[in-house]
Each structure stands twice: as C-alpha cells, then as structure tokens.
Amino acid sequence: MVKVTDYNRRDVLVLLHTKPAISVAQNASKQEKDEQTELYLQNLITTYEGWKRYCATEGLSIRPIPKCILLHHFSNEGEALRMLSFESTIGMFMKLASGSQPIINLDNLIPLCYGMESEIDARLKELGMELKIRRHLTPTERKKVKYPFQGEYLLGTVGATQQQEEKGKTFLYTIMSRDMWYFGWSNTPDFKKRLDSAGGTDGAREYKRITDKRQKDRQLEIEGLKQRNRELGEVEELCIYPPPLKAPTIIPYLVAKCEDDDKKTIKTRTIEAKMIIAGYVAYLLGLRNPIRPKSDIGYSVNKCVSISLADSTSWGEICEFVKLFWGFEPMLEKYEGS
Questions:
Q1: Span 25-30, mean pLDDT?
Q2: Distance (Å, whole) CA 309 – CA 142
Q3: pTM of the model
Q4: What is the pLDDT of residues 69-108, one digit of tens each?
Q5: DSSP secondary-structure letter at 235?
Q6: Residue of 187, 173, 200, 326 whose CA lies nearest to 265
Q7: Which sequence spans correspond to the domains of the chain?
Q8: Which of 63, 85, 101, 327 could form a disulfide with 113 if both were Cys (CB 3.0 to 4.6 A apart)?
Q9: Helix axis angle, 266-284 relative to 314-326, nearest 10°?
Q10: How far is CA 28 from the centre of its chain?
C-alpha cells in the first residue's frame, strides 16, 4: 500500500493512495522492496486517470513527479486492502475538512474503512481534527432542515409511495434494517426487487445473504440437535439456547428524486456519493436507524465511495443531510489535544 505525492509541489499537499501488486524475491530486504516499488510506481502512477488530470492542470510550471511518502509491504492482500481503506478514508476527511492544510486528493473510488473507529479517531486527532456530534436536534428543529441537494426530498411523504418512473428523473434510495443502512440510486423508483437480484456484490445484498445464512445455519443446527435427541430416546423436550435466529427485516425507501438527463448522471452520482459519506459519518458517530430510533446502533454497508465527486465545500451539505435524515448535527472540530 502506498501514498504518493507530487515531489515538485510545496504549496499544497497532493495525495494519491493505491495498492499495487509486485513480485519480489522471498528473502528481499525492506530496502530492496522499497526500491523496486518506487521504480514500478514511476510508470504505474502515470497511467492513473486522476494523475493524468492533475498533470493537465493549467499553471503547473514543473512536470509533476510521483513520490512515495508512505509505503507498506504486505504478503496478504486482505491486510493491504485494510490499510488502503484506512489511509484513503483519512484522506477523504482531509479533503472534506475546510480550513485544513491545502490538499489535492487524486483518489477516485475509495474503499471505506470499517471496524477501526478508534484508529480513525486517533489519526484525525493527530491531524488536528475531531469528528463529533454538535447537538441532537429537537423534532421542531429537524422539520425546519431543508434538503441540501438538487431535487425533491420524498422520504416519509405520500409521494414516496405513489412515485412513478419519469423521463429525465433519477431516484435516490436507502435500504435499511434495524441496524444497517445503504445508499444508492436508480432510474426507477420501484425497489421491491432490489435485493432479489442474484450475484450482486454490493453491501446491501451481502448483508442480506449473510443474515439469511445465519438464520438458515442456526435452524439446521437446531434440527440436528433435535434429531440427535430423538435418536438417544430422550423424552424431555430439548431446551434450545440460543433460540432460533430471525434475519432482520430489510426495507428499501425512496429518499429523493433528481432531474438528471445527462448520460453520465454526474448530478445523481454526486448526490449519491455525499449520501454515502453522510451514512459513513453516522456510522462513526454511533447513530441509529432514524425510522426505528429504539433500534441498535447502526452501521453503513456501502463498501466504497467516489470521493472525487466531493470536496471541502461538500461538508456543509453532508452535515445538513445528517441533520435531516438522523436528526443529529455532526462537526469536524479543531483538535488541540488535552
């Protein structure tokens, strides 16, 4: 896993995170691995679209030169991906934090980091910022929050249940259970079959497969115990603990619609990216399903986000959406230590 910058820039921090795969001798020293990686990256980085766009920036007086500023070697791809998700997620917050060090983040689609909340909190504090809840909005305050994106907010309205497909319109949706949420977009407002498609690898489908499998596996385990009880001639009813599992109910909701007749759907995908980031922020802050507020602390199951579609001006919109959707106001506060 490597973090790359432009060696020739001093006025701004240029960042690009990637996970290249290279082969080295089994007994190679760290220095030899570093040297081979550096040499390989000189050619690899120049093929990245983000780097190409950066090199084409007007006003650059000196040709950009990619330089590693962080380099980790892994023999296990899973560990490398975990480190990549952590570093690129931190890079996302650096990009979103207005007033921080000037930064040009060249990452596009990044894997979001899960299960490392304390590590993310510690790194953000090292960088002088802290993600916190500013306040819990009252019901009256929450009703006054306006939808921060282009289009019409439909969640919880009669229009959400009656919405029909419209030419030139796209639809933003969320999929939620008692302890998870997922954001996405579609050309149709009908999401009834959204989770039925076989073979999908997005977070919502995987969540459904995992929870359904847990229910089925527990049921098979219980049937096996009952069968063994019968074979042993036991007459007393078997006490089953833990009891049978029931997979969480998963419900899609129409959140909003957007006028977007562009073939690349940039407007819609930009809103989707900001909603995904909002969902990730809600996960880090330990918020709950807003429709079932007495549920467990929830988490996001969106695996990735197109961070190239957001910038420091997006943070205000993301905060407004968290206020509207969850009823809490987040903040990236300046951290000065204890």
A1: 83
A2: 27
A3: 0.91
A4: 999 889 889 999 999 999 999 999 999 997 667 899 999 9
A5: -
A6: 187
A7: 2-127, 136-195+250-334, 203-244
A8: 85
A9: 60
A10: 36
